[in-house]
Amino acid sequence: MKPYVILISSASGIGKSTIASEVANTLGIKYLIETDFIRAIVRGIIGSEYAPALHKSSYNAYTTLRDTYNFKSEEELITAGYEEHASFVIPAIEKVISRCVLDNDSIVIEGVHLVPGLINIKQFEDLANIHFFVLTVDEKQHQERFIQRALAIKRGGTQIDYFKENRIINDALVSQAKTLNIPVIFNNNKDTTVKKVLQYINEVSRIVFVRHTVDDIDLEREIITKHGGRITDISYYIPEFKEPLTRIVENYEDNTSSGKFINVIEHETKQKESLGTLYELSNNIHSHHLYAPDENKLNDIIQELKENNLLYDENLVKK
């Protein structure tokens, strides 16, 4: 059995350490490490004169950048400093993962240095069960937790002044995670968040091909979500195109978010017509990466799609 590598990232003050500890305990994973500890080791090897951003914090590393005039906004500058800071830590994080995978040991790693797109998790996909999560909360809750954490670790005077920078880091992490289809979880409640993380870890998936018109989108969603399923993308197969046209689907299992999309289709005539044209060009055929809590629920979804004449070809269902 392949080991688990579970990565949990967020800006400071979101609550990732608590969630990581709960997940590790629940799954019986003995190795749990904060990227701050890895950073401390790297700092001992690389001096501040060679890597000034490394020797700052993630939220003020931007003050070490030389080419500040190249950035169009404060957000870009702060994000660039943060990524520069993290880039010195990420190779060491990857070495830790490599060692765990080599020894067939599972590990949970949490920290702000886990930046989607910068850390190369694809290199481990064949050797381990890799799961990457980004946690977030709304701005008000973030600020409250951020202040509480800063005071608790007795660095309030240093950190409290940098909430704005930390919020920008939060927004950058969330944006990049969504771009790369990495789950973003709102950490409003510890138990709910842990449950959601475990659901993602334990779920199974298939690629399914469906065929239906725009009018059946809500029926498809109802079938999938009532069994606890979700989709993460839609690929349209247009005959004139060599590659399918794919778009990422966010928060599909969230009835509020997906319901808004359905509402737009039902009430915005132009958007419905545009989507209908896309469906017609692809002969109403498209595919999804379909996820469900377990094999039984996944099979139930596929069977019900078939019964409602939405499944295009059962033989095309694949892992």
**Uncertain regions: pLDDT < 50 for 5+ in a row?**
none
Tell me the radius of gyration.
22 Å
Please state roughly what percent of the residues sit in beta strands, choosing from under 5%, 5-15%, 15-25%, 25-35%, 35-45% or over 45%: 15-25%
Largest sheet: 5 strands, parallel
Number of strands: 10
Total of helices: 11
Which class best fits the helix and strand makeup?
Answer: alpha/beta
Average the pLDDT over all residues and give the rounded result.
91
Tell me the name of the CATH homologous superfamily of the largest domain.
P-loop containing nucleotide triphosphate hydrolases
From the N-terminal CA to the C-terminal CA, the straight-line distance is 18 Å
Q: Specify the CATH architecture of the largest domain.
A: 3-Layer(aba) Sandwich
Order of helices and strands: EHEHHEEHHHEHEHEEEHHEH
What overall form do the CA principal axes indicate?
Answer: globular
- Sheet with most strands: strand arrangement: 2-3-1-4-5
The level of helicity is: 40-55%
Count of separate structural domains? 2
- CATH topology name of the largest domain: Rossmann fold
For this structure, what is the CATH class of the largest domain? Alpha Beta
